[in-house]
Amino acid sequence: MATTEVERRRGQLAALSIAAVVIIVGVPLWWRTTETYRAWLPVSQIKEFATLQLLLSVDVEVVFSRGTVSPEQQKKVPMTQTQDEEHRVDENTALKYRYEIRYRTATIMEEDALKQPTASDADLSLHALSENPCGSLVVYVIPESSSLLSEDVDVYIGQKRTAILRLGAQMRVGRTLEQLLAHLEPRIKKILHMMSFSHTDITAALSDRVRLAPGNRENIVDSMRAFKSSPGYEITFSLLNPDPKSHRLHWDIESAVETYVQPLLTKLAPIANFSIDSQTLYYAMLGVNPRFDISRSSYTLNAESLAHVINPVEARLGSNAASSNPVLNFLLYVPDALHSPLHILDRKKQAVHSNAFHSPRWGGIMVYNVNDVYGPEAVLPVDININMAKVMGVFLAQLRLLLGVQSSSPPPGFVVASCSSTGLADWELDRLMWSRSVENVATATTTITSLAQLLDQIGNIVINDNIAEQVSSAVTSLQLAVAELEAGNLGFALQYSKEAILASERAFFDPSLLHLLYFPDDQKFAIYIPLFLPMCVPILLSLIKIASDARQKRREKQAKKD
């Protein structure tokens, strides 16, 4: 009996020891080694971006030339005014525009510059005196009697960040300065909306974050035509030769790109990086058979059939699989001898002057007619040298539209200087930078808040240190971008917004997030039950037996006492 009791006691101690090891050591070790690693994220800062309040500040300098203000009025300048505009886009997004307007009188050198024979010469002379920082504007006010602007012109918009404003006939020097400023305020606002940004531009840039009402969509057609903001773009020029037996085409695309396209892309360098390539496609036919118009003695493509032209051609263009950047396609189509000349008609059945069309967020196609070389004595194939100046003029106009450079009509009385050799004015670049900065901030905030919601809802997703670092970088860049927009530092705001959108997308599309995305809890039980059940059943039965024996002993002791 004593030996049996000792063995039973030893078995109980062994069972208790194994259970203790399993509970104290095994369970914590298993829990620690199988838990999902989730690095720390700045969740509280991310939640702040759910409600976005953007403040855009613009520095404006209004310079009064001689004859626009009286000596008494000159004593009150320089002076500064701050004007604010608030707009509620939706319940989670608000916009505020702040214009810091500083008034001063012109210097002697600026007075000399304003005496130039033409407004364009004055604009260049004023720019040579001082270069205005990115995002700022300078408005020079000249008297009504000045011959710098013609009689029907009130405002001249230059190539740089300057505008020349003629004082109205109803404002004489004898009026008070307050009346003068009140007279200038609405006209300066028009200049700001023309050269800086308008509420329509900024609202369109928020399309990734804000659902636009049907009435607003009609006002942002130009922005819907442009490509979305991207850190890089690929530009492809393609020459389509449908019938090499009819003609041999020669185009100096390398020289044309260097002369016409590269200056524009160099100026757009703060916006994105660009890469250019070209190709020639033989036997590339249009997806639509043109119809012969007897009244025009030419073949025609109507507006309704243009949508069917792109798909068959696009299949032969190819793509760069190594890059995820958007591709801007520019196609030059030279009709064969049997279908020349070929003209594109608009919806009013009128011939398009450029004989070209563009597809939103895709590219453009130009038809280049050479029917005059197909004479009765022509020997096929005919050698054709393409006029690249004519072609690039059309492609540059399409490129501006596809990149988001707005070409809105100026208000009555406004004259805009013609494009320089770069194809882009400084203020047009600023206007694009404002839109892209806001668009990047809106996209990055949407991406980072969506990622935070996804990680919060699905606890099985691993958050490694690399993702946490990218998220923290995106949040920091977003905060800096918003702060620079408030300070009016447009260049820094664009740079930080680009860093924010890159970091947020790298974090959102990280492959490691998908490892446990579709790993539900029932699969965990299916894996762990076969592993732990055979081990746990004997331990549990031993513990139950030990507890039962302990209760039996207590009952026996209680019976003896009684």
Automatic annotation (TrEMBL):
Keywords in alphabetical order: Endoplasmic reticulum, Glycoprotein, GPI-anchor biosynthesis, Membrane, Transmembrane, Transmembrane helix
Subcellular location, record wording: Endoplasmic reticulum membrane
Pfam families the UniProt entry points to: PIG-S
The protein's annotated pathway: Glycolipid biosynthesis; glycosylphosphatidylinositol-anchor biosynthesis
A single Gene Ontology CC term: GPI-anchor transamidase complex
Membrane topology annotation: Multi-pass membrane protein
Keyword Transmembrane set for record: yes
Record carries keyword Membrane: yes
Name the UniProt record assigns to this protein: Phosphatidylinositol glycan anchor biosynthesis, class S
Species of provenance: Cynoglossus semilaevis
